[in-house]
Amino acid sequence: MDLKEIAKILKCDFSGENFEVTKMNTLRDAKKSEISFVANSKYIKEIQDSNAGAIIVDRSTKEFVPKDTIALVVDNPYWEMATLSKYFAPPIEDETLAEPKIGKGSVVSPKAEIAKGAVIGENCTIMAHVYIGANSVIGNNTIIYPSVSIYRDCRVGSNCIIHANTTIGSDGFGFATNKMGEHRKIYQNGNVVIEDDVEIGSSTTIDRAVFGTTLIKYGVRIDNLVQIGHNCVIGEHSVLVAQAGISGSTTMGRNVVMGGQSATAGHLNIAPFTTMAARSGVTKSINQSGLTFAGFPLMEHKLWLKLQAKIARLIK
């Protein structure tokens, strides 16, 4: 889209040369042909370091936009980012793409649906009622059990196992809210990438990224009924047990273990080799590796055990 057309949609003016905007992206990752936004003053440094060709800002952050970047000034940048995200959303299915490619030795149930543009590697097993979306790629020797849905543009590696009813690449829970309390959908235009040797249990959901990628790294093991939010990164060989929930944009190091019904808030960093006992609630980043935690509010596991012992004595 031309920047001039975008300004018209957002009902704002701009000074500078018009150019073709190819994509929406984060401040950190945006290129000269892309547009970004800032909805919070805490990202001022990222504004100044951004390579975006244009940035949606409000009046309080306009002055921090670099001279060679065009500022689109609006009252509510987050709301207008949601407005614009719809225009950059790809079609759900694309009939202009090539017919799907099925690798040698792969068995695809006649009851499965493989969209145009999809690629399936060699020696895969795709069972009944599986849906693989446009431009999705499945590696070699991967097994996908019945009723799994893989939305468009997602990537699944080789030697993976995905159990029944799991959904990969559904929209993250993203919306903007205005002063009237009305909600507007933020279209999730990124994807999900699952690396090699990953096993995912049944009825698990992995949301696609707003921009960029939700990433499940090599060797991860995910149980049934796990929720992974948009833009999360799950480190190598991590283990997520049933009903664990990871809020959006949380990054885990390698070999993190989350017990059943444990959960994290969003935008956190979890150090490698961290263990969280069942029903733990993580509200702050964990920066020291190798520790075990329990409870809510979260505390080290040994301290939590002592606390439970004291409570038990009090009620005798």
Would you mind describing this structure in some detail?
The chain is an alpha/beta fold and 316 residues long. The protein has two domains: 3-88, 3-Layer(aba) Sandwich (Udp-n-acetylmuramoylalanyl-d-glutamate--2,6- Diaminopimelate Ligase, Chain: A, domain 1); 166-304, UDP N-Acetylglucosamine Acyltransferase, domain 1 (3 Solenoid), CATH 2.160.10. Helix content is 12%, strand content 27%. It has helices spanning 3-10, 44-49, 77-85, 301-314; strands at 23-24, 34-37, 54-57, 70-73, 101-102, 107-108, 113-114, 119-120, 125-126, 131-132, 137-138, 143-144, 149-150, 155-156, 161-162, 167-170, 175-177, 183-185, 191-194, 199-200, 205-207, 213-216, 221-222, 227-228, 233-234, 239-240, 245-246, 251-252, 257-258, 263-264, 269-270, 275-276, 281-282, 292-294, 299-300. The strands form six sheets. Strands 6-9-12-15-20-23-26-29-32-34-35 form an eleven-stranded mixed sheet. Strand 34 and strand 35 form a beta hairpin. It is flat and about 70 Å long. The mean pLDDT is 96.
Write the layout of secondary structure elements.
Blueprint: H1 3-10, E1 23-24, E2 34-37, H2 44-49, E3 54-57, E4 70-73, H3 77-85, E5 101-102, E6 107-108, E7 113-114, E8 119-120, E9 125-126, E10 131-132, E11 137-138, E12 143-144, E13 149-150, E14 155-156, E15 161-162, E16 167-170, E17 175-177, E18 183-185, E19 191-194, E20 199-200, E21 205-207, E22 213-216, E23 221-222, E24 227-228, E25 233-234, E26 239-240, E27 245-246, E28 251-252, E29 257-258, E30 263-264, E31 269-270, E32 275-276, E33 281-282, E34 292-294, E35 299-300, H4 301-314
